UniProtKB/TrEMBL annotation:
Pfam families: AAA_31 (PF13614). Gene3D superfamilies: P-loop containing nucleotide triphosphate hydrolases. This is Chromosome segregation ATPase. Residues 3-174 form the AAA domain.
Length: 261
């Protein structure tokens, strides 16, 4: 069965889109069939795969407003095994439209449940907010990856995110356990990074898994989106690409270990 994973943190600049694009590309290169759903009106994941967000005939907004089925909006990327439901600025209007709709929190789930098992993993890239779009992603997913940057105020807002996850689980009866905490922008040479890493360990209980792989601060990761491709294609030998390949293998092993339990 496929697994739907929401990559979520309402704090901007923590590496959500970078992780969605590069982790999905790394898994696809390891022969996993992957779908990325861009749920951010900024559409950075869409442009990160070289897709022009201004020339889309249909997007995730088409699904949200009921104009199209998910399978009709899915596009191939230039990477084998990797597909995307793209986004554009139209999605910003969905916030207003969904508020007055009954069952608005489950629109995405209802749309993608029929295609869930067509993929090994479906990753949802969420916007930097805890609004209705993120709520839809949490209801639709099976688990959550939370990227946290190793900088000052790294844990700011995390308590709000955890409360939202609990709300989804308790009030909407939709379990979305934390798959793992991912440390990003990590520079092990600095005292600050090491201190933040320890703060993260102290903040989360022993129940939450913290990925052993950390994502380094890397100029190639920052450059790749401007070239319309994942970093593992732009420069597969840089430290950023190597980290995402390592993360992909860790995620696969985590699944295999869970299946054995």
């Amino acid at each position: 069965m496929g697994e739907i994973i929401s990559i979520t943190n309402q704090k901007g600049g923590c590496g959500k889109t970078t992780t969605a694009v590069n982790l999905s590309a790394a898994l696809a290169s390891l022969n996993k069939k992957i779908l990325v759903i861009d749920m951010d009106p900024q559409a950075n994941a869409t442009t990160g795969f070289g897709i022009n967000k201004f020339k889309l005939d249909s997007s995730v907004y088409s699904i949200i407003c009921g104009e199209a089925k998910a399978e009709e909006v899915i596009r191939k990327t230039s990477i084998p095994n990797l597909y995307i439901i793209p986004s554009n600025l139209d999605l910003s209007g969905a916030e207003v439209e969904l508020i007055s709709q009954i069952g608005s929190h489950a629109v995405l789930k209802e749309a993608i449940d029929p295609i869930k098992n067509d993929y090994d993993y479906i990753f949802i890239d969420t916007p930097p907010s805890l609004g209705i779009l993120t709520l839809n992603a949490l209801v639709a997913c099976d688990s959550v990856i939370i990227p946290i940057q190793t900088e000052y105020y790294a844990l700011e807002g995390i308590a709000d995110l955890l409360r939202t996850i609990k709300l989804v689980e308790n009030r909407l009866n939709s379990p979305c356990p934390i798959k793992g905490i991912l440390l990003t922008l990590y520079d092990r040479r600095t005292r600050l990074a090491r201190e933040v890493y320890q703060e993260v360990k102290n903040f989360f209980s022993s129940k939450e898994y913290i990925f052993k792989t950390t994502i380094p601060r890397n100029i190639r990761l920052a450059e790749a989106p401007s070239h319309g491709m994942p970093c593992i294609i732009y420069d597969k030998d840089c430290n950023g690409s190597k980290a995402y390949f390592k993360l992909a293998k860790e995620l696969i092993k985590l699944e295999e270990d869970n299946e054995k339990k």
